[in-house]
Design brief:
alpha/beta; Copper Amine Oxidase, Chain A, domain 1; TIM Barrel; 3 domains; 7-stranded mixed sheet; 6-stranded antiparallel sheet; 13 helices; 27 strands
């Protein structure tokens, strides 16, 4: 490092230095992940879009689970093993995969061999697996009109259509996720399965659509207002910048926790209550139903709940509809079990881009990152190191990220709260930090 650069670093105010370092780390990770997930292929199994394949190095990798389940395989993950267990018609096999944020990928040639598939073929931006779908299920774009799918006043999809005979066809899987329904594609039969009821599927440029009037009776409305609005609707809003810190807030910081609600989370709540401190908990929606009492306790103690997606899968692997469903399903589940969540969304891993921030904004949420990372996700993190990371980097208006699933974080929290207060910094929720007058 040159003397000029060293002098510039030393002359930085401490808060500005750590904010800049956090931003550099986040954006460096973003660039790496965007390169890995860039230029994806839409995977069509007998014409049904099941997700995205990616080019990693010299290999095309495909998500195993959705391909296999669409072809009738039961896919099971056994705790403690890295393999997936596949079973169908008395046949079983174990498959080693590369797991990334809950998605299990295998190289395309291996997938074809494992599942006994004919060679796939590339067509434009799509990877076609299996034969072409029967003509009767493929919609002619000239026979449908654009529409949007809205749930409780929020736009779930811009990919719905209304047929010339007045039927509303909507994206099946995103709606099933938001309604909390069990969903499965049945590619060989050109059907979908919703709560064990089989319904005919319609294909439009690979998208799997279903008649709304047929799906709601078997999926259940969950007490939500589900409607199709004719017309192409409005474009996505301009992507706002993510919230990393809140300037002009002397004497205040926001402590935030990410991940699933688990029994260990109760230890954090004990400490927050004992020390009369508050925080923001970014929870994964799919884990809410197991520990709703923890969510209620968070709110009762003056802290708040916010959105960390439904499944914690990699946001760069999602289509717009899937990303919308991930955010909306988590929001609705938090609301159902604990009360209205705060209007914040933290993407898994902090991975974000202009597109994901625009989608979140369209759903009424601000994308939140951080300016201080406690480093508690590291396998060798100790309570002392976590507390030191936070206390040496904290600054007025900071957004601190920790995790609610780590015992070491629970042990570190008393020292973090006491140390912040000794430095004149009071822990508050994100909502409180934003509401304070600068």
């Amino acid at each position: 490092m040159s003397l000029a650069v060293l002098a510039a670093v030393v002359s930085f105010p401490r808060g500005q230095f750590w904010r800049l370092q956090a931003q550099i780390e986040i954006e460096s990770n973003n660039r790496r992940e965007r390169a890995a997930y860039g230029a994806p292929f839409e995977v069509l199994v007998i014409g049904m879009n099941i997700g995205r394949a990616h080019r990693w190095g010299d290999q095309t990798v495909v998500p195993l689970r959705p391909v296999a389940t669409s072809l009738g395989w039961i896919v099971h993950w056994e705790k403690g093993l890295d393999d997936l267990l596949l079973a169908r018609d008395g046949e079983t096999m174990r498959v080693s995969t590369r797991s990334v944020f809950g998605d299990d990928y295998v190289p395309l040639p291996e997938l074809e061999t494992l599942l006994g598939l004919p060679p796939s073929r590339r067509e434009g931006g799509s990877l076609l697996i299996g034969p072409d779908p029967p003509a009767g299920v493929v919609l002619d774009p000239a026979t449908v009109h654009p529409a949007e799918l809205w749930v409780d006043g929020r736009r779930l999809s811009r990919q719905a259509v209304i047929t010339t005979d007045g039927r509303s066809l909507v994206p099946a899987e995103p709606l099933a996720l938001v309604l909390g329904a069990i969903f499965r594609l049945r590619a060989p039969d050109q059907e979908i399965e919703v709560n064990y009821h089989r319904l005919p599927a319609y294909l439009l440029e690979g998208r799997v659509l279903v008649e709304l009037e047929a799906m709601l009776p078997v999926a259940g409305s969950r007490g939500l207002q589900v409607e199709v609005r004719p017309g192409p609707g409005s474009a996505l809003p301009s992507a706002p910048h993510p919230l990393r810190h809140v300037p002009g807030r002397p004497g205040r910081v926001a402590i935030t926790f990410d991940d699933y609600l688990l029994p260990v989370t109760a230890g954090l709540l004990d400490i927050l209550e004992q020390r009369h401190a508050r925080a923001t908990f970014f929870v994964i929606g799919s884990g809410m139903e197991q520990y709703p009492e923890l969510a209620s306790r968070i709110l009762a103690g003056g802290s708040e709940l916010a959105n960390h997606s439904w499944s914690h899968q990699h946001p760069f692997a999602f289509t717009e509809d899937r990303l919308r469903a991930e955010i909306l399903a988590a929001d609705l589940t938090i609301r159902d079990h604990a009360g209205l969540p705060a209007p914040f969304f933290r993407p898994p891993g902090g991975y974000h881009d202009a597109f994901s921030r625009a989608v979140a904004a369209d759903l009424g949420l601000t994308t939140v990152l951080w300016s201080v990372h406690g480093g508690d996700a590291a396998s060798d993190a100790t309570p002392e190191r976590i507390a030191r990371n936070v206390l040496t980097r904290a600054h007025p208006g900071a957004v601190v990220v920790l995790h609610m699933t780590r015992a070491a974080t629970v042990e570190a929290l008393p020292a973090i709260i006491d140390g912040l207060r000794a430095a004149g910094l009071e822990p508050v929720t994100l909502t409180e930090l934003l509401a304070l007058s600068p």
